[in-house]
Amino acid sequence: MFLRAPCKINLTLDVFDKKERTDGYHNIDSFVVQFREPADELRIHIKPASDRNSIKVTCNDSRLPVDTRNLVYRAADAYLTHIDSLFNIEIDLYKRIPTEAGLGGGSSDAAAVLRALNNYFNQKVEPLELTAMAAHIGSDVPLFLAEKPVRVRGRGEIIESLDFELPVFWGILVHPGIGVSTPHAYAALDAVPNRQPVTSTERLLSRLCDKKEIPINISELLATGLSNDFEPVVLTTYPDIAKAHEIIVSAGALRTLLCGSGSAIFGLARDLQHANQLVDILTVNFSSIMIVSSSYPDAFNIKQI
Ligand code: C5P
Q1: Cys-Cys crosslink for 158: which of 143, 153, 214, 226, Cβ 3.0 to 4.6 Å?
Q2: Residues of the chain with CATH 3.30.70.890
Q3: For the purposes of burial, counting CB atoms within 10 Å of the CB of 298, is it exposed (0-12), middle (13-18) or buried (19 or more)?
């Protein structure tokens, strides 16, 4: 099987006080969309085994572990254990989504494996159970089981579909050349005294549900609605990311937004032509820059090979 595992960005990301939960995680409220590109690619081979399960992962990026620390390994292991069958699984992972960028690459890879195995085994695992399995692997894995924009709550395990069509929008994605560790970003947020989370998700979603609010260009609405609680603290902690942020603003992006807990930055464009102009201006500043759009077709292809 050949699969693409797309990246995500959080258009809003409200992070609540850690004390709300007893498991050490934070409740969040987030509006998440997936972008078709950049996407990782996975090739999965499944064969029945006679005596025990075996899982083998190979990866083009030699810096990534291919053992139980890799989320695709954990996903395959969790699935086989759950269905209690003996199989040999080989996964060849081709990484295109940068790691520690807040784009959910590893989580998307794990969700792709869960979806592929559940297809192979004729949806043997019910959706609710699959979501629980995904949440056990990582907080961002459940959202990637959905093939559309979703609202994400809890620590990431509560996924809600939205009852409106999100019009297509365009932007650029910049990787500033450094990564941010998610646990460190959460710890930095916890260290901010008297931090008040904003309720940007509720606000943006109710505006998007209100037909009167959708302007001719969705970007105009998004420009005033994008929000990420990590942004101030990550920009203060990492001057290189703050600098990249400033450069994208001066190039004329309608709005810039830190992706997840960082480090990638999304620059909102008016349309495709504007996104192209931004790339032309910014290629001198960044070696990793690309045009992204929220269109979904073909993002989730699973092909037999
Ligand atoms: O679930 P995952 O392994 O992706 O989380 C990585 C780390 O990020 C957790 O150990 C925790 O420190 C932090 N986290 C959190 N609240 C969340 C998601 C992640 O505190 N909702």
Answers
A1: 153
A2: 170-293
A3: exposed
- Spacing of C-alpha 90 from chain mean position: 24
Residues 6+ apart with CB under 8 A from 138: 71, 106, 107, 110, 156
Domain 2-163 has CATH 3.30.70.3040: no
Select from 2.40.480.10, 3.30.70.1230, 3.30.70.890, 3.30.450.20 the CATH code of 170-293: 3.30.70.890
Assembly ipTM: 0.97
* Count of other CB atoms within 10 angstroms of residue 28: 21
Q: Where in the chain is the domain with CATH 3.30.230.10?
A: 2-163
Of the pLDDT bands very low, low, confident and very high (cuts 50, 70, 90), residue 304 is very low
Q: Look at residue 305 in the predicted model and tell me its pLDDT.
A: 39
288: its two tokens: 């990793």
Confidence band of 300 (pLDDT split at 50, 70, 90): very low
Atom number of ligand 1 nearest to Cα 154: 21
Nearest CA owner, ligand 1 atom 10:
183
- Counting from 1 in the atom list of ligand 1, the atom nearest the Cα of 26 is 16
**Cβ of residue 74 lying under 6 Å from some atom of ligand 1:** no
